[in-house]
Amino acid sequence: MRLRHLFTLLPALLLGLPMAGQTGTPVPCLNNDPGLLEQLHGNDPEQLARMAQAEAELEAHTAEFVQHFQPGEREPYIISVVFHIIHMGGPENVLDEQLYDAIRILNEDFNKENPDWQNVQPAFLDLVADVGVEFRLARKDPQGNCTNGITRTQSLLTYQGDYEMVDLINWPRHRYMNVWVAASANGAAGYTNYPGALHNFPDQDGIVILHNYVGSIGTSSPGTSRVLTHEVGHWLNLRHAWGNSNNPGLPSNCNQDDQVADTPNTMGWTACLLSGSTCDETQDNVENYMEYSYCCKMFTNGQGVRMLAALNSGTAQRNQLWQPATLAQTGVLEEGVLCEVSYHSSRREICAGESVQYVDQSFNAVTARTWDFPGGEPATSTEQYPVVTYLVPGVYPMTLAVSDGTDTLVQHVEEYVTVLPSPGADAPFHEGFEVADLAGTPWTIVNPNNDNTWQLTGAAAYTGEKSVRILNTSGMAGRQDELVYSTVDMSAMDPLRLSFKYAYARRNVASDDRLRVYVSNNCGATWSMRKQLRGQVDLNTVGAPQGGSFVPGAGQWAECVITNISSAYQVENMRVKFEFESDGGNNLYLDDINLYSDSPLGTTGPQGAGAIGLTVVPSPAGEQGQAWLSMQRPGPLAIDLLDLTGRTVARVYSGVRPAGTHRIDLPLHGVAAGAYLLRATTAPGTEMVRFIKE
To answer: What average pLDDT is seen over the chain?
Structure first.
């Protein structure tokens, strides 16, 4: 009796996950690609010679193995697999179940258990191989800790999918088959290299694959689900059916060979013409996994033996993968035990009234779970994939407890979900940072490197006494920091305008730091860049580079006015994000951020909790006027006179006021007649009123 490790079939719910459409245009792999190989050997003659020697030794071993191979019943070769998910929180961060499905497909394809093998063309039906290789997700990591064989790493390199990405994380290749799942596979559907090419490069040994080409559910589809099978074939020393290139359909391919006796020579296929014949009158094996036809169903017996030869070779340590000692180290011979609470969610920052999709991916052998969602609806759940709606703005905790029937593990996060107001702050909106709080809402700081980042400063300001800055140093080159505002109700603004003041100095003539401005019309679920300022082009506000720590003077500020914000952003929960990417230049300062419109503005301030009832008396005002307001509690107060574009004309008042009613004189003498805005900023927020100066 052959031993099989059959993955439990997924619940019907998961089989119903959204699927990507089947592709009609095959995306190539990059096996044996000269550019990728050059990244490994660097055109170093010694490395090239070592690579050629390893490939020659493997071919010699393969020829001898094939000559003496005796088919028959035997134990399967078991290979431990680890999936490394490299992601930025997008669709490439696939669910565990999609990876379980990929393992299921591999085991079916390599063991003649795929349900479609019997539909192979009659000419090849007797050649369908039961290779006898079994794939199991690792249960122990390289340090011996419990794992589910899946790692998740957040990195922008997911959009490159090259060997630099691979270097982020890799497990020892003599114990694990490494598979990196990403948003890009360097322009291919997937790629790897032959064992001989990878022999001297253990850290790059494995398979890179697009997230929508792994498994048949989730972001992938049945039509793209055999790409991983194809790449594992390369990883075990199979060539394409047409030979040692990535270019099917060329007449010259008829003169190439895939080194397998029972696969007919072919030009190669990107379509499913099952009766096709390209090199002579012999029918092509169009349904072979090593084709691009996307109707693949089989390996031949000869291909199976060639892969087993690779697994019995020391080249790239393939012969160590399936040894009992290795399997014991990776834990795949053991039953899974509950060892970790693992989860993620679709978002951790939403608007009131929106929902969060939670996913329990705890491992292993989970039989029961309990979620607690204070502030959410529902407040509790026992489902694996609960959807929770939050109606009231705030910051809410989350708790997940999982059990295997004997032991229980609990994970609690006190501040897990931030729910922003919708509608947001009233427009026109202004932030002068005089009474701002950067420690939480409404401003959020993203500082992935935990170094210098956005902070309030009294060192310089365009108006008032404060601004926000980044102390930028040469050691921060390449790092990004974000300053994100909560939500603003721009639904009544037409057209939309965003302006701000900034000051920046280069550290040297080569400094090319960048400030990017993004807007969102869906509460930050997605962002669209509307402006980029560069140190070499338009970010610099001073002349010569500044060697010391830059502090701007009165004449060293500039203004940016962004007008390319379409009506699609006239929503109740518009958001703004400032992203600074350091190039090791000097400091950056921001002040007087305005969201406004060129259309007439209302004459009343916001209502409800915290409203101060800002009014200009008399109306219209003459040479003398007063601002009337009422503060519910003592605190800082700043009052500014603005024109209708949101630009500051004068600072009227800045100080601390007690609770109660206040009447503050307006310096209107000498101010030109026309329409103006008066803005009052207190700890609860900003209120603005439009008035006429006669």
So the answer is: 89
Alpha-helix runs per DSSP H in 400-470:
none
For strand 380-381 and strand 355-360, is the pairing parallel, antiparallel, or unpaired? unpaired
For the stretch 239-247, contacts whose Cβ atoms lie closer than 8 Å and that sit 24 or more positions apart, written own/partner, are 239/290, 240/31, 240/268, 240/290, 240/291, 241/266, 241/268, 241/269, 241/284, 241/285, 241/288, 241/290, 241/291, 242/266, 242/267, 242/268, 244/32, 245/32, 246/28, 246/29, 246/30, 246/31, 246/32, 246/33
Separation of alpha carbons 495 and 523, rounded Å: 20
Show the 3-state SS of 252-288. Answer: HHHHCCCCCCCCCCCCCCCCCCCCCCCCCCCCCCCCE
Q: For residues 464 and 466, give the distance between their C-alpha atoms in angstroms, rounded to a whole number.
A: 6
* Residues noted as catalytic: 231
Output phi, psi for 622, to 5 deg. -105, -140
Q: Which two tokens stand for residue 627?
A: 């601002």
In the Cβ-directed half-sphere of 415, how many Cα atoms lie within 13 Å? Answer: 5
pLDDT per position as a tens digit, 280-328: 889 999 999 999 998 999 999 999 999 999 999 999 999 999 999 999 9
Q: What are phi and psi of 589, to 5 degrees?
A: -125, 145
Phi, psi of 481 (to 5 degrees): -130, 140
Number of other CB atoms surrounding residue 515 within 10 Å: 22
pLDDT tens figures, 545-603: 998 999 999 889 999 999 999 999 999 999 999 999 999 999 999 999 999 886 433 33
User: Which portions of the chain are predicted below pLDDT 70?
Assistant: 1-27, 598-611
Residue 686, classed as helix, strand or coil, is strand
**Burial class (CB within 10 angstroms; exposed 0-12, middle 13-18, buried 19+) of 473:** middle
Residue found under tokens 């200009």: 616
How is residue 241 written in tokens?
A: 């059916």
Q: Which residues contact 281 (CB under 8 A, 6 or more apart)?
A: none
Specify the length of the chain in residues.
Answer: 694
Q: Is the peptide bond before 142 cis (omega within 30 degrees of 0)?
A: no
CA dist 408 → 224, 366, 405, 416 (Å): 39, 9, 8, 21
Q: What is the pTM of this model?
A: 0.73
> Is the Cβ–Cβ distance between 293 and 278 less than 8 Å?
no
pLDDT of 27: 59
Q: Which helix (H) or strand (E) holds 306?
A: helix 301-311
Structural contact between residues 576 and 662, judged by C-beta atoms closer than 8 angstroms: no
